[in-house]
Design goal:
This protein has 361 residues and is an alpha/beta fold. The protein has two domains: 49 residues; 286 residues, Glycosyl transferase family 29 (sialyltransferase cstii, chain A, Alpha-Beta Complex). It has 13 helices and nine strands. It has a seven-stranded parallel β-sheet, with helices on both faces. Bound molecules: 2-acetamido-2-deoxy-beta-D-glucopyranose (6 copies). One 2-acetamido-2-deoxy-beta-D-glucopyranose binds next to helix 4 and helix 5.
Length: 361
């Protein structure tokens, strides 16, 4: 009898343990216990990677193999925007640099005969003459309004075969760089602001005034997008930039040529140097991501990946349209990338480094 009671007790105990296990492992949905476990572990791993990448100090001494594997895992985690963090960055950037009122030289913020110190050498100055002043825009092209969902599209080879064109084109405001080609399903077509590097004018359009057609054709691909030039970064930039303005102003009035305020770029440079970003000068890409953090509701970053292999370790061209790298004496793209990764991990912006799925945005 005692033996039977003992067997019965053992059976009951087993049933209880089994039910508890079932209750613990099986969620009310169709998940199997294995999936639920994996999910819990996955969430832990994501939280760990988020902490790690939020505080990643530098790109020096990175073990690239491990770094790209962990980054690939992290990018498969659920992305959490943090609106507090977004507002903090917006306020910091507005306070230091104020893109809202001063990103470009306009009739509103620049007077005739005003002395404009250069971005990199404030000992050199430019005096705004009435002729050039008359061609400045009245105000910034978006005149103070918040820019919604912005896509900032770098030229990284990571965009090749990405199928991100449709997702990029669905943004409210699209920023591109250096007259990058756009005829392609990987990068999209919509363009609201595109930069021109004065060196491009120098090297690719030598007789701009005598033969403007190739240049006019090249920029007309971008429809009504503003063309932004760092005309007062270095003294050699100014004449080239003014040449572009003179050529385009009469024939493409719907497409304003705008000059970056050297004061804005200088304060932005100082802002990031104060946060440990040591390089000669910020890249225009990084500068305009900062601008977007101030002006846009949300910021999506594409094509910023300064490494030679993708996340699956396949080799990549440096740009999606050519092989030429940046000036390594001037910029430190890996250090800038680490800052972008910090911002992504904190929920301040979204980095896109994987192919886009066809059924999104
Ligand atoms: C969002 O960012 C703020 C400011 O950095 C931070 O205090 C807060 O913990 C973050 N929230 C989450 C859910 O991570
Ligand atoms: C930024 O510039 C705008 C327009 O010039 C001005 O109204 C605003 O007060 C400035 N904001 C800050 C924080 O300086
Ligand atoms: C700018 O300077 C020129 C030459 O010094 C002068 O003739 C002109 O009146 C000035 N214009 C303004 C608006 O100050
Ligand atoms: C893109 O796809 C083409 C065709 O499938 C392939 O030849 C090329 O290597 C791919 N390029 C990159 C960078 O993935
Ligand atoms: C886009 O332009 C590049 C360079 O001009 C060219 O090589 C490529 O074939 C074009 N692609 C398409 C889809 O037209
Ligand atoms: C470009 O500007 C022209 C002239 O202002 C306007 O008619 C046209 O609708 C604009 N196109 C787009 C795509 O906004």
């Amino acid at each position: 009898m005692a033996f039977l009671r003992w067997i019965f007790g053992l059976l009951m105990a087993l049933i209880v343990v089994y039910s508890v296990c079932v209750m613990f492992y099986y969620t009310p949905e169709t998940h199997s216990s294995r999936e639920a476990m994996t999910e819990a572990l996955q969430r832990l791993r994501c939280a760990k990677l988020r902490r790690k990448f939020s505080g990643i100090p530098t790109a020096r001494r990175l073990n690239m193999k491990r770094f790209t594997q962990e980054l690939d895992d992290f990018l498969n985690c659920l992305y959490k925007p943090n609106t507090t963090e977004q507002e903090l960055n917006r306020m910091r950037l507005q306070f230091c640099c104020n893109a809202t009122g001063s990103i470009f030289l306009t009739k509103r913020n620049t007077a005739v005969n005003q002395t404009i110190p250069y971005e990199t050498t404030i000992k050199s100055t430019y005096t705004m003459n009435p002729d050039i002043h008359s061609m400045l825009p009245e105000d910034v092209p978006w005149s103070g309004r918040r820019l919604g969902r912005c896509a900032v599209v770098g030229s990284g080879g990571i965009l090749k075969n990405s199928s991100c064109g449709r997702e990029i084109d669905s943004a409210d405001f699209v920023i591109r760089f250096n007259l990058a080609y756009i005829n392609d399903s990987d990068v999209g077509l919509k363009t609201d602001l595109i930069t021109i590097n004065p060196s491009q004018i120098k090297h690719e359009y030598k007789n701009l005034e005598e033969n403007p057609d190739p240049f006019v054709e090249r920029v007309s691909v971008y429809g009504n997008a503003s063309l932004a030039i760092p005309a007062f970064a270095y003294t050699f930039c100014t004449e080239l930039s003014i040449r572009a303005l003179r050529v385009l102003h009469p024939v493409r009035p719907q497409q304003p040529v705008v000059f970056f305020s050297p004061e804005y770029l200088r304060t932005l440079d100082r802002f990031w140097k104060g946060r440990g970003l040591k390089e000669v000068r910020l890249s225009t890409g990084f500068a305009l991501i900062s601008t977007a953090l101030e002006l846009c509701e949300s910021v999506h970053v594409y094509g910023f990946w300064p490494f030679g292999n993708d996340l699956q370790e396949n080799p990549l061209p440096y740009h999606y349209y050519n092989q030429f790298g940046p000036n390594r004496h001037m910029h430190s793209m890996p250090e800038e990338f680490v800052r972008l990764l910090q911002l992504h991990s904190k929920g301040a912006l979204t980095l896109h480094l994987q192919p886009c799925s066809s059924d999104e945005p």
